[in-house]
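Incident log entry.

Two folding requests arrived from the same account within the same minute. Monitoring flagged them as a possible duplicate submission, but the sequences differ. Recording both here for audit purposes.

Request one:
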Amino acid sequence: MIRAAVPADAALAAGLALRLWPGHTEEELTAEMAELISSSEAVIFLAFKECRAVGFAQVQLRRDYVEGTTSSPVGYLEGIYVEETYRRRGIASRLTAAGEQWSAEQGCREFASSCEADNLLSARFHRGAGFQDAGCIQCFVKSLNSFIRLDISASPR
């Protein structure tokens, strides 16, 4: 069974999300899930097997540019996770389909997602779920903790 999470499900969703994003605390993810569940711009879907939550998908509307798309807003699969024991049973496909349907109901014409370049398992899932490659980008970041302060107040003449 797949259903949209309700406010009482925030901790349940966070427990699953923690397995996908272990760099966070359960408290952080519970607060984030509660916020997303109450937002009209997002939805959390939960997958149940034998009355037990075994997977989740986080879908949000993105109104900024999404690589490879031509419309706005775009439904975006922010994260998807299914417990290993329950994988390869179509649960992730049903979670994705629920996200696609929700996105279409929000007026989206496109549905997108992404994964880390070295996450071959995720890339294989995305392709199997009907996603097409939209390009490959490298992301860069630079710390501003120590930089040379320039006098930029003078206007050029």
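Request two (distinct sequence, not a duplicate):
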Amino acid sequence: MDKNKKNQSIRCTVVSCENHNSTENYCSLDTISVGTHEPHPSECQCVDCESFVAKSKCCNC
């Protein structure tokens, strides 16, 4: 995946995500999936980016 790609339609400030643009607050994916862990979400905290992938902490040592 190209971390330098910037999808200007998807702003993102989650720098701990593998899909985060390497230089700006945008997602590098073409599309994302948004979901919820609640049957009837009523707060922002109830909505999740299901495309989130935690950055690997492995340093290939």
